[in-house]
Amino acid sequence: MVPVGIIGGMGPFAGAHYVGLFLDECARLIEAGGAGVTDQRFPPHYLFQLPVPDRTSALLGARDEYGRVLHALSGQMDGLRALGARVVAMSCNTAHAWHAELRRMHPDMALLHIGDATADYLVGQGETEVGLLSTAGTVKSGVYAEALARVGIACRAADGDELDLVMRGIYDGVKAGDSELGRACFTSALLRMRGRTGVTGFLMACTEIPLALGASDVPTECRLYDPGRLSARELARRALA
Fold first, then answer.
1. Residue 68: CB partners within 8 Å, gap ≥ 6?
2. pTM of the predicted model as reported, rounded to 2 decimal places
3. Structural domains counted in the chain
């Protein structure tokens, strides 16, 4: 087994949720290997949960704020290295805008990319285009557009009122403790995107979105994908290697 780390603090509930996804995927892999699930069969893992400046504000704002996010994320990687982790995942989608810089700063650590894990999975599902429910920062960074383009999948991002609804659902809804508002905003944004673009597959590409939105909230022809779970699945695979 390989010790692994998770960069959290973006926000704290999302970080804790990611750990749950990781443990679910570990249990699934342990069972698939023919072994019973026991406490002792789970790999060593660490959640480093320190507050990180808002990623979307940094991407849309001043360069010094961008640098503060990079410093905070890099500090968490240093902390995880000190604990013995050599494979790391980030619980925040938008934080992957700093992925390339973090890899250059920490060449001795493997930093997973949520977009790559998602793209690989969607190819296997036969998707050719998907809708992107995410923060404005994730849209601007191209985290998913670039990863999906490499495998020939079109990425249809929320825009205008759709994006405003997603942002409201994240910040005024889930992050503020109002999951019902989050669900209403996410559902409305998805339905508008469905009507505008015709897509039926959607990425819940902010860790807060799956905390409020589920399959029962959307039309039956729509498919919801949780990139956080797909990233956690890859982290579990590495941890149990």
1. 53, 58
2. 0.93
3. 2
